[in-house]
Amino acid sequence: MTNTRTLIRLIKYLGLLQVFLLSVIVILTYFTRTSPIPHNSGLGRSRIRWKKPTLAVSDILKRHQDNAFPKNCNDGHCSLPTEKLQLKKKRRPLKAMSKAELRQTLDDNVAGVLSFPPLSKTSQEKSPFVILTATNSNFSSIMDNWLESIRRLRVRYNVTLMSEDDETFSYFSKRSNSEFKVLSTSALTLPGRLHFRIPTYQQLIRKRTVYIFALLSSGRDVLLADIDAVWKKDPMHLIFDEYEKHDMWIAQGKEDHFPCPCFFYMKSIPRVIDLVVEWVQLVAFSNKTLTDQNALALLLESPSLNVDVKYLSYEQFPLGSQYFNQSWHEKYANGVYVVHGNHLGRGSGKIEMFKNHNLWYLDRNS
Ligand SMILES: *[C@@H]1O[C@H](CO)[C@@H](O)[C@H](O)[C@H]1NC(C)=O
Ligand SMILES: *[C@@H]1O[C@H](CO)[C@@H](O)[C@H](O)[C@H]1NC(C)=O
Ligand SMILES: *[C@@H]1O[C@H](CO)[C@@H](O)[C@H](O)[C@H]1NC(C)=O
Ligand SMILES: *[C@@H]1O[C@H](CO)[C@@H](O)[C@H](O)[C@H]1NC(C)=O
Fold it and tell me: Residue 89 C-alpha to ligand 1 middle, in angstroms?
């Protein structure tokens, strides 16, 4: 009798426990549903909040009065095609630097920590070029994979890696040689918003604008390469075959003629260097925090732009959403040079997607 009652009570409690656990699961699912990509997927976004892309750019656009970009404006609010970076903390208003002051700061870096051996070449010769990459420890496996993708092509290009933390520096510098240079970026003097040492991928790619300046100033052309843009074929002949015709070659982003600084070749010539200084200025001092991509897009749309830009085709430099789309893939995959692992959605991991498409060349997972 007592045993039966205990049993019934036990069953009742178990039932209650089940209901309780279910509620906890439901609540947890609700609150984690919009959380960032899982830790291992290769995107360290935990410190930044991504919002729908609406951005008041009127203060920046003052510089380009008759500018047609961005196109979708409504009451002074314009939507940009890419996501906007929002910093959590309120920052004090920045004291903007004039272009001349900024140039001086950048030149000081180039004379100091970012100095590259000067080159002796006649003005007739084509400048040598360097592939510029950057990573921190969160992305070192993706960097490894990228290195492996160009190793497999058996090309011998000079690669400079900017390592954003000590761990990354000690990991990659063991393998450095005359063609693979590994630099630590901790000693740089960074202007304006670039100064905040925010360890996120967004900040990392924004700082690349300064590295580009340093390399271009040393007389080297720069190919900026995202480490999640895997090389399937050697793309350099596409540029060198028409080297005389243009100043810059840029892969396209979500929209036609919207730059993707994932694959981006710049000649070391004064008008390109000047554009890069303006790019740094916008990234560092605009009142709204701009991504490197949005800032560059604004500059490229400026009517006063005097740099000749060639946009690379989607068929050869597709977006992730194209390459990983089955119908697109079946039609164009054979002609693809570089696959950018962007726009892979929030749920599915980049690495997993690379693996499924034979673009992951490492054995280990992370
Ligand atoms: C790496 O990612 C984690 C979580 O995504 C983040 O908290 C951390 O700040 C990142 N570290 C760096 C060096 O970016
Ligand atoms: C940023 O805002 C401040 C104060 O609101 C203003 O004085 C300054 O001119 C603005 N800077 C730019 C680049 O528009
Ligand atoms: C790489 O850099 C070295 C100097 O460090 C230079 O001699 C060589 O020609 C460069 N290679 C290419 C392919 O640009
Ligand atoms: C895949 O691409 C085709 C056209 O190439 C398009 O019609 C389709 O909507 C795309 N699918 C997805 C899921 O984006």
Answer: 17
Q: What distance in Å separates the CA atoms of residue 262 and residue 266, rounded to the nearest whole number?
A: 13
pLDDT value of position 44 = 28
In this structure, of 15-19, 235-239, 361-365, the range with the lowest mean pLDDT score is 361-365
Nearest Cα neighbor of 322 from 337, 344, 300, 304 is 344
Q: How far apart are CA 279 and CA 193, in angstroms?
A: 13
Does ligand 1 have an atom closer than 6 angstroms to the CB of 54?
A: no
**pLDDT per residue over 24-51, tens digit each?**
776 766 655 543 333 333 332 323 333 3
Return the residue whose CA atom lies nearest to atom 2 of ligand 2: 287
Question: How open is the CA angle 293-43-342, to the nearest 5 degrees?
Answer: 50
- Ligand 2 center to 337 CA (angstroms): 42
Closest ligand 4 atom to Cα of 331:
5
Quickly count: other Cβ atoms within 10 Å of residue 366's Cβ: 13
Confidence (pTM): 0.74
CA angle 32, 38, 44 (to 5 degrees): 115
Residue bearing the CA closest to ligand 3, atom 10: 158
Phi, psi values for residue 160, rounded to 5°: -115, 125
Ligand 1 centre to CA of 280 (Å) is 24
> What secondary structure letter does DSSP report for 55?
B
360 exposed, middle or buried (CB, 10 Å; 0-12, 13-18, 19+)?
Answer: buried
Q: Tens digit of pLDDT for each residue in 301-348?
A: 988 889 999 999 999 999 998 999 999 999 999 999 999 988 665 445
Q: pLDDT tens, 230-283?
A: 999 999 999 999 999 999 999 999 889 999 989 999 999 999 999 999 999 998
Ligand of minimum distance to the alpha carbon of 61 = 2
